[in-house]
């Protein structure tokens, strides 16, 4: 079985049940949606900023797009790129590509024209599907900068002259499945890494990995047909989509929320009867701060059905979850760990029953193996720090067109994650830090996550990033960039005094107040902070330390 079989199975078993809902609190629908756009008016309801489609229509839309691609000459093994904000069309387009046997190539919606050009060309894509938000970034590429481009397909109103309308072209296509023969061993998608250490790497996944993500996510969190999953993160990334896969496999409803705002999240949970929400640390923090300030009053929302909140994509401060449980004592909680190279989250998870271990990322997820190894790939003793390695059906096939990088991380089915970790006496894994983020000061290894978690326990701090700043004598010193909660004030001296309980060599030597930049998947953009504060012949920090 491959993942497109699950969609077709849901369309047969639950044809009229809601499959997907799109909520866009930032705009009101100005006109009725025509049948040429959403196929069957009775199967879709428009109300203010809300759209929905059934499993039957979802499958039919995927089939229409698959048949259009085949008509345009797309063959098994070709690549089709997707450049869309989260929307109701995103997943039918993705599944339509898979149904042809072509590879889906989701692109980051933050990409500049140059980044779009690089990632599109590197993947060898021949068709680009894009939305209205990207017209100004795509138009400059039309004049010869995408040499393999055969077709530009536009999703939205007022199609630009340099593209063709997705809605118009799919309207008359067959709703029947193209019945392309697919196997678990076939290539399915190319995902790009976050690019936090340079140019993004192209990660090749097969259909086996996508099925693995469905099974692992469902086993880890126990989704049923009655669950409703709220999807907030960008669908181009493995995280959001692979969490939704746990609902796909049982025919549960998925709700796509366009935009991140504490009130919008709470309204969506209340109005759509959401039972499962996956959050990033900053979003959970914002919700709690909005409750504390009185901006959100929990009694105004229907939340009894909300059973599970889980977090991933970054280390989770235990203090945050303690606060969450104070406000939502009935919630189950889980931490999820994964990376794009492991087909998203779930290769390690805390487990719903292990909230007493908050701070750990957990143990091997369903169908996965883990170990912690030294530089020679030998397992380290329990309690020792080493690199986390994972093994399972969700491991990528390779870095596309990068044999050297592939050999560096794949060894006999084991994937080296680049994350430094350790296990406790019960076998729970704790992230220490990214291998490339370790600070070496005076010969001592310092792991920024430990200092970040400590600083986040301060009542006035909203977010924090710790990086190594160059220092002539010590090599590097600890620099903390602190983002305060709205309306709070605290001095650098007070925070340095707060840190005195840490071992002396771990204490920040300098604290700066600034916004902590994070990418759409919640990871701190430390290269941007290093460039801002630590570059040049003499870094800003060294100059300040000399004053």
Can you offer a commentary on this structure?
The chain is globular, with a radius of gyration of 24 Å. It is built from 17 helices and 27 strands. The longest helix is centred in the N-terminal third of the chain and has 17 residues. With 547 residues, the chain is of the alpha/beta class. Helix content is 29%, strand content 25%. Among the domains are: 154 residues, Rossmann fold (3-Layer(aba) Sandwich); 107 residues, ANL, C-terminal domain (GMP Synthetase, Chain A, domain 3). α11 packs across α12. A 9-stranded mixed β-sheet has the order 2-1-11-10-12-13-14-15-16, with helices on both faces.
The name CATH uses for the topology of the domain at 53-206 is Rossmann fold
Share of residues in helices = 25-40%
Helix and strand composition category: alpha/beta
Distance between the termini: 66 Å
Count of β-strands:
27
Uncertain ranges = 29-47
Strand content: 25-35%
Q: Biggest sheet, strands in spatial order?
A: 2-1-11-10-12-13-14-15-16
Largest sheet: 9 strands, mixed
Overall, the morphology is globular
The CATH homologous superfamily of the domain at 53-206: ANL, N-terminal domain
Radius of gyration equals 24 Å
| CATH architecture designation of the domain at 53-206 | 3-Layer(aba) Sandwich
Number of helices: 17
CATH class category of the domain at 53-206: Alpha Beta
* Overall average residue pLDDT: 88
């Amino acid at each position: 079985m491959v993942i497109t079989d699950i969609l077709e199975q849901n369309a047969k078993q639950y044809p009229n049940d809601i499959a997907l809902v799109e909520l866009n609190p930032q705009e009101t629908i100005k006109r009725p949606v025509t049948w040429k756009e959403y196929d069957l008016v009775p199967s879709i309801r428009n109300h203010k900023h809300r759209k929905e489609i059934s499993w039957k229509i979802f499958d039919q839309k995927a089939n229409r797009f698959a048949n259009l691609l085949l008509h345009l000459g797309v063959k098994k093994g070709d690549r089709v790129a997707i450049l869309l904000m989260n929307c109701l069309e995103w997943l039918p387009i993705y599944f339509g590509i898979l149904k042809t046997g072509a590879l889906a190539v989701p692109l980051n919606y933050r990409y500049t024209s140059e980044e779009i050009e690089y990632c599109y060309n590197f993947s060898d894509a021949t068709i680009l599907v894009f939305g209205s938000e990207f017209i100004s970034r795509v138009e400059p590429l039309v004049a010869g900068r995408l040499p393999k481009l055969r077709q530009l397909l536009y999703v939205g109103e007022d199609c630009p002259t340099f593209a063709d309308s997705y809605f118009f072209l799919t309207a008359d296509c067959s709703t029947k499945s193209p019945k392309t023969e697919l196997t678990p061993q076939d290539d399915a998608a190319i995902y790009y890494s976050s690019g936090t250490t340079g140019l993004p790497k192209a990660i090749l996944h097969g259909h086996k990995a996508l099925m693995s993500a469905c099974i692992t996510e469902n086993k880890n969190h126990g989704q049923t047909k009655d669950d409703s999953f709220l999807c907030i993160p960008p669908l181009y990334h493995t995280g959001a989509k692979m969490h939704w896969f746990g609902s796909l496999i049982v025919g549960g409803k998925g709700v796509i929320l366009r935009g991140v705002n504490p009130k919008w999240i709470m309204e969506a949970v209340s109005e759509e009867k959401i039972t499962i929400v996956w959050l990033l640390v900053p979003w959970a923090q914002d919700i709690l701060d909005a409750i504390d300030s009185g901006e959100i009053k929990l009694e105004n929302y229907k939340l009894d059905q909300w059973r599970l909140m889980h977090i991933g994509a970054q280390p989770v401060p235990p203090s945050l979850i303690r606060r969450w449980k104070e406000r939502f004592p009935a919630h189950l909680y889980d931490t999820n760990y994964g990376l794009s190279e492991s087909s998203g989250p779930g290769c390690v998870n805390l487990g719903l029953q292990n909230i007493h271990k908050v701070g750990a990322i957990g143990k091997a997820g369903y169908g996965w193996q883990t170990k912690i190894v030294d530089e020679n790939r030998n397992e380290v003793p329990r309690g020792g720090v080493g690199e986390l390695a994972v093994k399972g059906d969700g491991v990528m096939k390779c870095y596309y067109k990068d044999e050297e990088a592939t050999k560096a991380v794949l060894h006999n089915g084991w994937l080296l994650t680049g994350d430094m970790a350790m296990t406790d006496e019960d076998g729970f894994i704790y992230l220490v830090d990214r291998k490339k983020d370790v600070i070496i000061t005076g010969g001592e290894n310092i792991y920024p996550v430990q200092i970040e978690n400590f600083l986040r326990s301060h009542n006035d701090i909203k977010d924090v990033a710790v990086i190594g700043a160059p220092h002539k004598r010590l090599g590097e010193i600890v620099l903390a960039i602190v983002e305060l909660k709205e309306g709070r004030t605290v001095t650098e001296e007070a925070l340095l005094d707060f840190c005195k309980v840490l071992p002396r060599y771990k204490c920040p030597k300098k604290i700066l107040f600034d916004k902590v930049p994070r990418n759409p998947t919640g990871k701190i953009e430390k290269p941007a902070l290093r460039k801002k504060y630590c570059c040049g012949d003499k870094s800003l920090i060294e100059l300040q330390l000399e004053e």
